[in-house]
Amino acid sequence: MSYPRLFSPLNVGTHTMKNRIMCAPMVFGAVVFFPSIAPRAYRKIEAAARGGAGKVCVGETSVNSQDAERMPFPPIDFRTPSGPEFEAISRYAQLIKKHGAIALIELSHAGGEKKPLPGQPNPWGPTAYVRADGQQVEAMDQAMMDKVCRDFATAAVYMREAGFDGVLVHAGHGWLLSQFLSPLWNKRTDEYGGSLENRARFPLAVFKAIREAVGPDFLLEARLNGRDGVPGGIEADEVGQFVQLLEGIVDTVHISVGLYNNPVVTNEFSSMFAPRACNADLAAIVKEYTSMPVGVVGGINSPEVAESILAEGKADYVVLGRQMIADPDLPKKAATGREREIRRCLRCYTCFPGSPEAGYVIPDDGRPMIEKVGTCAINPVANLAVALEEFPRPAGSRKVLVVGGGPAGMQAAITAADRGHQVTLV
Fold first, then answer.
1. Is the pTM of this model over 0.90?
2. According to the model, what pLDDT value does residue 265 have?
3. 8 A C-beta contact, residue 375 and residue 351
4. What whole-number distance in Å separates Cα of residue 289 and Cα of residue 147?
5. Secondary structure (DSSP) of 69-132
6. Residue 4 maps to a domain
7. pLDDT digits (tens, 9 = 90+) for 33-81
């Protein structure tokens, strides 16, 4: 089967995607500062680019270590584009671009969802409130907003100097910019609350600050909720109106849904019971409001589904998340007629510890939690500590009997055959 739309180029700002496939931001940017994580983080990012994605985005990277981080990572001094941290971040861009993909990195501010460490300020948000866990969230004043604008702009310049083609700004999933946009959180009565124009004022200031800092040729993408997924949250038509305000500032938007603090119910991480392409109809609504390219993420695990989204005009490109953990080679396999070889994501949550099936309890096996993220039920090499190519080759070919032809047995047989053994599967 051919996929003429999926494998056609797409102009985004001053850049051109070689196809309509983007790898979603999943690998935290700062994990490369952990020696036990860095090699597999680099491998995952490069695998997506090598596998043929037209655009690859490194994951959540907080714009500062005091008021923006969702979880503690070693801080990055974004004012100084040099040194070991800068080189570590730069390597992401190098690995992506050497395979012909556009290299992005996601910039984020957790806002009211931040988990403060001792000595750090309370989380910031549009409105003061007390979270369900008892944590006080402080209402932002003008000085706080100005600081966040500067932080985003400074981080974007740092990423430009690191070799990235652009940045993806996270304005969805209940992060800070999403909190301002959503009437669910934003209860302000000043010029930053009430109407959509007012709720959009601060997020727009952030995007404008970034654009002024990086210039016209640096790709600027926004990740937005098509809806929050709870009563009182933002809905697709208001999102479309906000996207109209972004025209001339950002180059593209892509549509997700849901909230970090309730990801399964709100469909941020769609479950196996949700339909495929579960956010495409929302993207189609947003697309009616703008002429800029609109992408969509959520439940897309096959080239057939991706092509149908594009053919129906619901989006201009597709964003693959967990599917790129299950099989980062999906683009190449689809382009060369090898669809039957694609490992299709089950949406089983194995890649994110603390799944609903496990009762949101993360099993303690002695490893830090960050080492467990990215394991896959159908891709046994997805989160190996050592690259498969680094395993020693067998000294010679041996006869191997695999008893049991279930998924594990078949994979064992395939792996043994790939390594040169004579395999019998019964």
1. yes
2. 82
3. yes
4. 31
5. -SS------TT---SHHHHHHHHHHHHHHTTT-EEEEEEE--GGG--PPTTSPPPEESS-EE-T
6. no
7. 888 889 999 999 999 999 999 999 999 999 999 999 888 888 899 999 9
Residue ranges of E strands in 268-393: 294-297, 317-320
Three-state SS at 201: helix
Same domain, 376 and 407: no
Expressed as residue numbers, the domain containing 421 is: 392-426
How many CB atoms are closer than 10 A to CB 424?
A: 11
- Kind and range of the H or E run holding 148: helix 142-161
- Check whether residue 307 and residue 290 sit in a common domain: yes
Name the burial class of residue 105, with classes exposed (0-12), middle (13-18) and buried (19+) by CB atoms within 10 angstroms of its CB: buried
- Give the CA distances from residue 238 to residues 86, 87, 104, 254, in Å, rounded to whole numbers and listed in that order: 38, 40, 26, 15
**Inside any domain, residue 407:** yes
Is 5 a domain residue? no
Q: Residue 261 is part of a domain; what is its CATH number?
A: 3.20.20.70
